[in-house]
Model the fold of this input.
Amino acid sequence: QVQLVESGGGLVQAGGSLRLSCAASGRTFSLYRIGWFRTGPGKDREFVGDISKSGVDTTYGDSVKGRFSISRDNAKNTVFLQMNSLKPEDTAVYSCAATVRARTVVRGPEYDYWGQGTQVTVSS
Done:
């Protein structure tokens, strides 16, 4: 079992940057692929991106491609979401999730564990 805790959210001006962290408990963190999702006000949950178990491969949603990047440090059981060139439409609750599946998973229900989320607000 894995417990996930996100941190690093906050208020930032458009064009700014934030780095979110997803810290995991347990000694089997490297067995999980980690995804990031976001839920904006009045919007459905959206796939932001994910990172493979080794950290070699990443996949991003079209709306964040080129602006966001995901990395992981398995020794510290942590995954990072670096968000640059933020826009007001990036405002959302950002959540990380873990799955044992080997390939990219864009559907939330296919993830096994979820964090509680962290709020990101981008002002114009």
The CA atoms of residues 12 and 46 lie 20 Å apart. DSSP finds no helices and eleven strands in the chain.
